[in-house]
Amino acid sequence: MTPCTTPTPRAWRYTATSPRRSCPPRHPISPDCAVKAPTRQPPPRRMPPPPSRRTRMSNRFRATVAGVAVVAGISMLAACSSTASSTGSAAEPEFPTKDITMVVPYSAGGPTDIAARALAKGMEEELGSTIVVENKPGASGITGLSELSAKKADGYSITFTPGDAFVQSELRTAPYTFDSFEPVAGIMTQPYIVVTSKDSGIASYEDLSDADRLTYSVSGIGTPTHINTEILTEDLGVAATAVPYDGAGPAVQAAVGNNVSFAMLDASGVMPFIASGDLVALAVLTTDGERLDYLPEVPSLTELEADVENMTLTIYGVAAPAGLDKGVREALRSAALAATESKTFADFAEANYMPMLDAETEANWYETLKTTAKATVKSLKKFGIELQ
């Protein structure tokens, strides 16, 4: 008998209500073919109708949103990673990566310029980058600081200057204020020394108060030496007349030549003549109120109970445009303070009789300048001094 190869028709189904049979029906074509009872099959799966246009659009929208969500998630992870990376690098920014410009708001060859170049050399060794010193003199320092205040606060434009240039913004018309700059580091100070000619007949600070009338030389109208000496003579209770000169050099020579009774001038200008015996030191004005190491026998005005509270001192410092990154500021600050310990700068400071700031003064040097500015404005009005 030939095996059956024709499939069983799908028309017949065995159900629970079907009559019992001992054998399923014979194959219609091959009656001799015995067909076993078919196994129970699950009902055919009904295919869903084709989606409508609206449904297709909805599905596409869901797919698009899902895709965007995935991309957004990846982007957020990348952003978080980037933020974490940048946060970690903020403590130690990659600085510097190019040359730095140091603006000096005074002429080349002067004491400020010489000090700036010595400091810049030491900072270069610390930072591993070139520092280009640019002299921008004019208007008592206003010209240079005006240009600096317009620079980007990225650490690549800084200044080294005495505080007088900052104070000028309170005394004259200037396009900047104290808030236009960020203090980086206080460096050193220029003490003032009260001197008289060896031929003046004045041997001590107390002798000044015994004079009927005094004259004194100043390096310019409204300068710190002028204002400080006005305060000094008022404190002594002595009538005195200021004799202005064009710069510190001529003012020193006037004292050496006994053309004036005395003078209160920068230590760097008078020390060579004190050393030679042409000038006699009567008192010193310092930031800490102590005597100078190189004039240990000369009392400080603080010791003598003079009105030093309203007097001002020249403080040199490094500053940059306001808004400087904290990490960049710390890099510059560390380099500047380290540079003061270099042989080049130490030799300059010693040769010019400029002591480094003590820790307390250094930490507050910029605030001290702000106080100085207010005191200066007050003194100018009090003594009727008109700036030229």
UniProtKB/TrEMBL annotation:
Manganese keyword on record: no
Keyword annotations: Membrane, Transmembrane, Transmembrane helix
Disordered: annotated segments: 1-56
Domain of life: Bacteria
Record field: transmembrane: 61-79
Database matches in InterPro entries: BUG, Bug_dom1
Gene3D superfamilies: Bordetella uptake gene, domain 1, Periplasmic binding protein-like II
Compositional bias annotation for Pro residues: 40-52
Membrane listed as a keyword: yes
Family per record: Belongs to the UPF0065 (bug) family.
UniProt name for this protein: Tripartite tricarboxylate transporter substrate binding protein
Organism: Homoserinimonas hongtaonis
